[in-house]
Amino acid sequence: MLSSRMALRRLQRIAVAPLSFPGAATTKVLREMSSVPRVYVTRQIPPEGLKILRDSGQVQFELWDSDDVPVPRKELLQKVKGVDGLLCVLTEKIDAELLDAAGPNLKVLSTMSVGFDHLSLEELKKRGIRVGYTPEVLTDAVAELTVALLLATSRRLIEATHEAKTGGWGTWRTLWLCGYELANSTVGILGLGRIGVAIAERLAPFKVKKFIYTDVAPRPELAKAINAEYVSLDELAKQSDFLSVCCALTPETKEVCNKDLFKKMKNTSIFINTSRGGVVNQEDLYEALSTGQIAGAGLDVTVPEPLPTNHPLFTLKNCVILPHVASASYSTRNAMSALAANNLLLGLRGQPMIKELKL
Ligand SMILES: O=C(O)C(=O)CO
């Protein structure tokens, strides 16, 4: 007779090797494990999280064994049937249809992301499903990338390497490829949270003159750490030389960066978005960039993702577009994966998760 932990290990080996064909031994293991919580993992997550799930001896899990393509919706709706837990990434829409497909066993959802705009919180709450997410562990990586994107945009680094490579590099010229510097500037933060603070902390040594921010309400504790002044959205647009979007995407922030905002910005200012594409009206941004209403934009996030290669924004030299990589460092993605796995296991044990959303 197999111990339940050994049986689970065998089952997990089977579960993560989708091309193996279950034989009699597998059927026996499956029978023995029928009381162990079942979990579906919607992506090949980084190894630390998978190891935690495997070594826990607490769950039997199956995963969509690819990182290159998301699990097709139809397959996902099949796979979630009857599961107790679900570990997803931000490409999966967790809505009423999916939760209905999963059925009443589903108790815990763990998303490997700090953003949760892909989750229907109302539907999750209605069904009493607990939700884990992964804030904090990605703050440094996102702040670092935001600074890199800001500098690449304001100092025109992508244009410059292109010119150097393609013969545009003639003699040294007095105003060629000039950009805007951080020294003596005003940096505005739209949505002051941990990430906004971390960005400001990294920008301060570049001799920024002033930090300003806006949010639904003043956040004095956070603002104190970076000596930032609370202003209205209008003032943020008017005063910022660099405007960095750090807010979550909610119905209130959807397309809050639109022509009204861009119109108020200086024509020398740089707009940076590393939060969610939905916060920006992209047609209005295109207009603002192409008519010189603002000087440049750096986007790590767009609508849709991936942004089609024939999208007008790609035609603009003053728009730097990255493929949603702000948290993409090995250590951060592993930490997100581990936190998502631990949240899931704790939730399934009925214990407080390390990072749980209050619904
Ligand atoms: O965690 C998130 O919400 C992301 O956007 C990944 O960086």
Automatic annotation (TrEMBL):
It holds the Pfam family 2-Hacid_dh_C. Keywords: Oxidoreductase. InterPro entries: D-isomer_2-hydroxyacid_DH, D-isomer_2_OHA_DH_cat_dom, D-isomer_DH_CS, D-isomer_DH_CS1, D-isomer_DH_NAD-bd, NAD(P)-bd_dom_sf. Residues 39-356 form the D-isomer specific 2-hydroxyacid dehydrogenase catalytic domain. One of its GO terms (cellular component) is cytosol. The keyword Oxidoreductase applies. Residues 147-326 form the D-isomer specific 2-hydroxyacid dehydrogenase NAD-binding domain. Coiled coil: none annotated. Signal peptide: none annotated. Gene3D superfamilies: NAD(P)-binding Rossmann-like Domain. GO terms for molecular function: glyoxylate reductase (NADPH) activity; hydroxypyruvate reductase (NADH) activity; NAD binding. SUPFAM superfamilies: Formate/glycerate dehydrogenase catalytic domain-like, NAD(P)-binding Rossmann-fold domains. Belongs to the D-isomer specific 2-hydroxyacid dehydrogenase family. This is Glyoxylate reductase/hydroxypyruvate reductase. It comes from Fundulus heteroclitus (Killifish). The lineage of its organism: Eukaryota, Metazoa, Chordata, Craniata, Vertebrata.
